[in-house]
């Protein structure tokens, strides 16, 4: 008998890849590429507070503009390395960051997730029990930042804050900064490195054909959301048969073909939302995108971006001989596993290409090095 099986070819996948290359090339005409990940310009928000200890660094409050005009809070993770504030800073994975104590980064991320992220100064000071302190002439943001930076430097650089005279400020500032520092180091738990690259995978291990319906497929992705248009000749549905127009992590879906004939379906995405999470590290790069010596930074505030692109994910269904009395996926040949893995890999490659294309970022021309 004949049963429907899922099948794909490398020729089809290659065609999709060429389409993705075209998208990347078109985008590159208007935007400078970077070696990897997100990138942006340093923005100085205030001079911050000078800390006292075995070293006396300045906890300058700063952020990174990843291309949308907003400064997202970052921290220094190398006291004795100069900040190259005029250079673009590009995202890098942890294992490429040269630190005196690279093993400290999981605990640094734990501090970041509990510490000042640019929006929670009042809550952090209250949690540390110092929201009633007089901190003039400094702001709550500066105090919360200084306490968080002091905790980070203790982990990465062996900074030892002077408990009797921790800052350049008056008694209230000293008390508040020291309390935030102590609070964060007491409660922070190590957190693994966040995803550096986007991924999209489809689990087809339970997929079968049932009349015109094929599935289930289960999505595994770190995209916030991927939206798409319904394909011609088929409808993407959930387990209840309701139409689906977006994918998220853990989602299950089916493909319902209009007719029980050999067919293929292509899902063309409308947009992809990808988040650069807190804990990502950034390094200064030269005009060619190569890393240069300079202060490494770590992101305290996540950043979500929406990307529009025509990325295709293809499933092909065709008639194949089967000895089984019940229609099911073939054991041999080019199966859905091949197609799903090809489609997923192509999609991820395309998205990475998009993510690597840095938007134009206005360079900050004010402020000073840390």
From TrEMBL:
Q: Which Pfam families match?
A: TED
Where is the secretion signal located? 1-28
Where do transmembrane segments lie in this chain?
336-356
Q: Which InterPro entries does the entry link to?
A: Thioester_dom (IPR013552)
Q: Which residues form the Thioester domain?
A: 74-188
Print the keywords alphabetically: Membrane, Signal, Transmembrane, Transmembrane helix
> What is the protein name for this chain?
LPXTG-motif cell wall-anchored protein/TQXA domain-containing protein
Q: Which organism is it from?
A: Glycomyces artemisiae
Q: What is the lineage of its organism?
A: Bacteria, Bacillati, Actinomycetota, Actinomycetes, Glycomycetales
């Amino acid at each position: 008998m004949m049963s429907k099986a899922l099948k794909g070819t490398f020729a089809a996948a290659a065609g999709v890849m060429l389409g993705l290359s075209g998208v990347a090339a078109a985008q590159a005409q208007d935007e400078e590429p970077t070696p990897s990940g997100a990138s942006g310009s340093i923005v100085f928000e205030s001079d911050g507070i000078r800390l006292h200890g075995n070293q006396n660094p300045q906890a300058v409050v700063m952020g990174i503009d990843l291309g949308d005009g907003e400064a997202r809070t970052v921290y220094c993770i190398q006291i004795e390395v100069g900040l190259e504030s005029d250079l673009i800073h590009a995202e890098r994975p942890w294992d490429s960051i040269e630190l005196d104590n690279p093993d400290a980064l999981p605990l640094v991320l734990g501090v970041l997730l509990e510490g000042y992220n640019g929006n929670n100064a009042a809550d952090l000071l209250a949690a540390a029990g110092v929201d009633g302190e007089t901190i003039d002439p400094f702001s709550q943001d500066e105090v919360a930042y200084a306490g968080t930076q002091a905790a980070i430097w203790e982990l990465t650089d062996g900074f030892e804050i002077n408990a009797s005279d921790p800052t350049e400020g008056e008694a209230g500032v000293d008390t508040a900064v020291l309390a935030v520092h102590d609070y964060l180091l007491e409660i922070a738990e190590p957190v693994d490195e966040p995803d550096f690259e986007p991924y999209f995978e489809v689990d087809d291990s339970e997929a079968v054909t049932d009349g015109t319906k094929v599935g289930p497929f289960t999505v595994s992705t770190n995209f916030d959301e991927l939206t798409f248009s319904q394909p011609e000749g088929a409808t993407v549905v959930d387990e209840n048969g309701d139409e689906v127009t977006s994918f998220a992590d853990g989602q299950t879906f089916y493909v319902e073909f209009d007719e029980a004939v050999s067919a293929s379906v292509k899902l063309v995405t409308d947009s992809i939302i990808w988040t650069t999470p807190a804990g990502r590290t950034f390094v200064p790069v030269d005009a060619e995108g190569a890393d240069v010596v300079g202060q490494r930074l770590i992101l305290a505030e996540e950043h979500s971006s929406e990307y529009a692109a025509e990325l295709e994910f293809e499933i092909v269904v065709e008639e194949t001989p089967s000895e089984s009395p019940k229609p099911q996926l073939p054991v041999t040949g080019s199966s859905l596993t091949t197609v799903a893995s090809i489609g997923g890999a192509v999609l991820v490659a395309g998205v990475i290409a998009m993510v690597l294309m840095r938007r134009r970022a206005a360079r900050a021309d004010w402020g000073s090095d840390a």
